[in-house]
Input
Amino acid sequence: MFNYPNEKGGLVKFIIIIVIAIIVLSYFGFNLRSIVESPTTQGNLSYVWGGVLYVWTNYLERPASYLWNDIFVNLLWNSFVDNLERIKGGEATTIEELAPQINFQN
Output
C-alpha cells in the first residue's frame, strides 16, 4: 500500500540531519544554549514534562506495567530463557515436547 524507503542506516541519517540543523541554526545566529537555558523555554519544558508525567501516572503506567511484567517477562522472556537453557543442555524444547507425535506404523 505504502512505499517506504529502505530503513537501514536510519540512526546515522538522523544524526547527520541533527548536525546539519545545528549548523544551519548557528549560521543564522541562533544560540542554542541561550535558547535552552532561557526561563521561557525552561517553563515550557517543565509544563510539558508535568503533562507527560500526569498522562503516564494516570493512564499508561498500569497497562504498560501489566504488558511488561505479565506478558513480556512472565510469558515470553522466561520461556525464551528456559528454552535456551534446554537447548544448551541438549534437551528438547517445550515446543518439541508439546508437539503431537506421529507414529508411522504399517
